[in-house]
Design brief:
The protein is globular, with a radius of gyration of 15 Å. The protein has one domain: Pyruvate-ferredoxin oxidoreductase, PFOR, domain III (Pyruvate-ferredoxin Oxidoreductase, domain 3, 3-Layer(aba) Sandwich). The protein has 179 residues and is of the alpha/beta class. Helix content is 38%, strand content 26%. Keywords: Oxidoreductase.
């Protein structure tokens, strides 16, 4: 089982990020769970979701031993960094998180300049998708094309397929930022 927490401010695509991850898991015929949590403020408030992707049954929607923490701001790191298991991944939005910030020594920290990369491909709303590209490349939880196809299917099902070309560009920018 892979446990993922996605966290940030409302309006940063946090809940959508979780949905794209479970779409990709469903495409692999895995069991999935998406458990959202957000403040009443919507934009600007906090938002997070627990995502589980498993070959077996999922007993609880709550993530306790986090493999991957996808964060889009500093407060998300403050809240969830201690829930990452040793050897797990922390994805940091280096566009807005202080570069001097210290992290646990027993986790893998991946810094992604999401805003700069999204601007480069002219998709300013695609910062979460940039981060997803980096996540897929660094963790290998999905094949590159497999996730891209699931993401496009997700947006098509939401009636937003017209953005798929720009979203794939954002995904590729994030994916290619990992060496």
């Amino acid at each position: 089982m892979t446990e993922i927490i996605c966290a940030g401010f409302g309006g940063q695509g946090i809940l959508t990020t979780g949905m794209m991850l479970i779409y990709a898991g469903m495409d692999q015929e895995k069991n999935v769970c998406w458990y959202p949590s957000y403040g009443s403020e919507m934009r600007g408030g906090t938002a997070n979701c627990n995502v589980k992707i498993s070959d077996g049954k999922i007993a609880s929607p709550y993530c306790k031993n986090v493999d991957i923490l996808f964060t889009m701001n500093g407060p998300a790191i403050d809240k969830f960094e201690n829930s990452i298991k040793p050897g797990g991944y922390l994805f940091v939005n280096s566009s807005i998180v202080d570069d001097k910030r210290k992290y646990r020594k027993d986790i893998i920290v991946v810094k992604v300049p999401t805003m700069e990369l999204a601007a480069k491909v002219e998709n300013l709303k695609g910062t979460n998708i940039v981060m997803l590209g980096a996540l897929v490349n660094a963790t290998k939880i999905f094949e590159k094309e497999e996730f891209s196809n699931a993401m496009c299917k997700y947006f098509e099902n939401k009636g937003k397929g017209k953005y798929n070309v720009k979203n794939v560009e954002a995904y590729e920018a994030g994916y290619n930022s990992i060496h």
